[in-house]
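Schema walk-through. Below, the input block comes first and the output block second. Nothing else is stored per chain. Lengths vary across the set, and this one has 274 residues.
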Amino acid sequence: MDQIDLIKENILEASKYIRAKTKIEPEIAIILGSGMSDSLPELADTVTLLYEDIPHFPVSKVAGHRGELLSGKLEDRSIFIMRGRFHYYEGFTMRGVTFPVLVLASLGIKKLIITNAAGGINKNLKPGDFMLVKDHINLMGGNPLIGPNDESMGTRFVDLTDAYDEEMLKIAEETAKVSDIRWRKGVLAAVSGPNYETLAEVKFLANIGVDAVTMSTVPEVIMARFADVRVLAISLISNIAGKKGSLSHDEVLAEASRSEMRLKKWLRELILRL
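--- output ---
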C-alpha cells in the first residue's frame, strides 16, 4: 500500500469510528488552542471522544490541550470542537499535525474556526487582545502538502491568496463588537518552536510585516484549504514577543484563562451567525 492509500484508509477508519459514536453531521468545526479547551459555548446532546481512542489520531502531551473531540448542538447548529491540537515541535510530521483536519473534512465540515495563542509583535497589540488573521507567513520550515498527492483529495497546487475567508472575517468583526472583544486584524507568522523568539527574530518579524507569531495554525489552514474548507483564524495575544526574561508557557495559559469567558461568548455568537 502506498503512502496516499494508507492516509485515505486511516482517514476512513477514523471517520467511521467518529460516525459510530455521534449521529450529528456538523458543517462547522473549531480547533481550540493553548489554554482554550474550556472556552467553548455550552452545547446540547454532547458526545466526547478522547483523541487516544480515535484510530490514527495523534495524542498531544502539551499542557493546556485537553485531547478531546466534542460533538454537539448549539440551538440549531451542529458542531465539532477539538479541545487541543498537535504541534510540529512535538515531533509529529506535518501530515500528522493536520490529519484531524482531513478527518473533519471527510465528515462533512465546510467551515473551520482555528484559534491559537500568539505573541504580539505589533506594538498596538496587548495581552488579552484578539487578532483576526487576515494573512500569514509560513516560517515553520515545512508544509503538510509536501509528498505524494491524490487529486481526489485536493489539488496539487493550493491557492492561498484567499486562505482566510472574507465573509467569515466580516461576521467575526460584527460579532466581536457585541462580545466585549478587543480585536484587530493582522498578519500571523508561524514558527516551529518550541523556544520563544530571540530579540533579533522579533525585529525581523516586525520588519517583514508580521503582527503576531505562533507555533501552530498555519499547517491546519493549508490543509483545510487543500480540502476546500473555508477558514477563520483567531489569535489570542497571550504575551509580548521579545519581552526579555519573562516568557513562559504558564504565562500563555494564564492569559488564556483570563480571556475564557470573552472567547466563549464570541464563539457562541460566531457559530450562530456562520
